[in-house]
Design brief:
With 154 residues, the protein is mostly helical. The protein has a domain of 76 residues: Orthogonal Bundle (Arc Repressor Mutant, subunit A). It has 8 helices and 3 strands; from the N terminus they run αααβααββααα. A 3-stranded antiparallel beta sheet has the order 1-3-2. The longest helix has 27 residues.
Amino acid sequence: MSTPEKTRSETRSDKTRRADPVTLEVVELIGDVVARFYEDYEEAAGDHSLTGAQARLLSLLSLEPLPMRKLAQKLKCEPSNVTGIVDRLETRGLVERRPDPADRRVKLAAATDEGRRVARSLRESLRFAREPLAGLSDDERLALRGLLRRMLEI
């Protein structure tokens, strides 16, 4: 490793180890935002007679059908848990199972029309997304989006 690369990686490493006051405050604020988001999300899910896990799964499926294993990865849970959640949503007519056209041995879970309607209503009912973000200008929302994307890329 050349000296400039070593210095750059050492500097980055030093920066990630150092807990300056601004970084500590940003971490606290991120935690507060996440807690507020989950609180609002759980309340919105309850208003639709869903658990938070059911609402998250339905939201994912409203975007595209997914195999159970992929759902488990995205929800960070065991595939057997996903099966139970899909069973309950299927009973309510919000989700259906169908064969994967690319591999008929694999079952995809997919939102029904009613499931997509409920997922859309759930997203629209999130106060967190409407109220604080509405107070930001378009430029501020774009800047925030860019910063959050950069944080996730690191």
